[in-house]
Design brief:
There is one protein chain. By secondary structure, this protein is of the alpha+beta class. Among the domains are: 100 residues, Nuclear Transport Factor 2, Chain: A (Roll); 44 residues, no CATH class. The chain contains 4 helices and 5 strands; from the N terminus they run H-H-H-E-E-E-E-E-H. Strands 1, 2, 3, 4 and 5 form a 5-stranded antiparallel β-sheet that branches. A hairpin with a 2-residue loop joins strand 1 and strand 2. Helix 2 crosses helix 3. The longest helix is centred in the N-terminal third of the chain and has 45 residues.
C-alpha cells in the first residue's frame, strides 16, 4: 500500500479473520488434548465401576445323581412250570395240532408230548406250582400239583432252565412223578436188636392192644393208665 493511500475495508478485515481462524484452531487443539487425557484418566475408574457393578455369579455345583443299585435276584419259574404242566397234561402225542399241544411244544421244544395209556386219567381240573428249588445257577426243579375231578392229586417235578437275567425260561425235561419223602425221625439214636428192643416191643403190644400186663415193664412205684379205644 502506497503512503498516503487509505486501506480499503476488505484489506483491513483480512488480518482480523486470519487471527480468528488461528485462535479457533488453537481452541480445538486444546479441547482435543483435554478429551484425550479425560479418557485416559477415566479408564481405571470406569474399569473399577464396571467391576463393582457386575453381579457376582456363583457356578452352581452339578446335582449329584443317585447311584443305581442293582440287586441280584433269582426269578422263580414256578408260574412257567405250572403253565407248561397244565398244557402238557391236556395234550396228547396222538394229536399234536391242538392249542394245548402247541403251547407245550413252544415251552419245551425238546420234550415229547404224553402218550396216553388205556387207563390214563382224564385232564386235570386245576394245576398249581407248590415248590421251586434252585439247584445251581440257571437250573431249577419245580414241583407242580395236578388235581383231578375225582378228588385225587398227583405231583410232578419239572426241570426248568433260566437265563442269567431271569427273564427267559425253558423246560428241559418231561415232567416226572414226584416221590414223597419220608419225614426225618426226631430220634437220633437207633436201638439195635436185642433184649431192650424186645422189651419195648412187648410193652407197646401190651399197652396198645390190651393183651398182657404192662406193670411188669414199669419201674417200681410207677403207674400207667391204659388208653381205651
Amino acid at each position: 500500500m502506497s503512503p498516503g493511500k487509505q486501506a480499503s475495508p476488505d484489506e483491513a478485515a483480512a488480518p482480523m479473520a486470519a487471527g480468528a481462524r488461528l485462535e479457533a484452531m488453537r481452541r480445538r487443539a486444546g479441547l482435543a488434548r483435554v478429551a484425550v487425557w479425560t479418557v485416559i484418566a477415566a479408564g481405571p475408574i470406569a474399569l473399577a465401576v464396571a467391576a463393582a457393578s457386575t453381579p457376582t455369579t456363583v457356578a452352581a455345583a452339578p446335582a449329584a445323581r443317585p447311584t443305581a443299585v442293582r440287586t441280584a435276584f433269582a426269578a422263580d419259574p414256578g408260574g412257567y412250570a405250572q403253565l407248561f404242566v397244565g398244557a402238557w397234561l391236556r395234550s396228547s402225542a396222538d394229536d399234536p395240532t391242538t392249542a394245548q399241544a402247541r403251547l407245550a411244544q413252544s415251552m419245551a421244544p425238546d420234550v415229547e408230548l404224553p402218550d396216553p395209556a388205556v387207563d390214563a386219567q382224564s385232564a386235570p381240573q386245576s394245576v398249581a406250582a407248590v415248590r421251586s428249588v434252585q439247584r445251581n445257577a440257571g437250573a431249577w426243579s419245580v414241583t407242580v400239583a395236578a388235581q383231578y375231578a375225582e378228588g385225587s392229586a398227583r405231583y410232578y417235578t419239572v426241570p426248568v432252565a433260566a437265563d442269567a437275567a431271569g427273564s427267559s425260561f425253558a423246560v428241559t425235561g418231561a415232567p416226572g412223578a414226584a416221590r414223597a419223602e419220608a419225614p426225618k425221625s426226631a430220634y437220633g439214636v437207633t436201638v439195635p436188636d436185642g433184649g431192650l428192643s424186645s422189651a419195648v416191643g412187648e410193652f407197646l403190644a401190651a399197652y396198645l392192644t390190651g393183651a398182657g400186663e404192662v406193670d411188669r415193664y414199669l419201674a417200681p412205684g410207677a403207674s400207667l393208665t391204659r388208653d381205651r379205644p
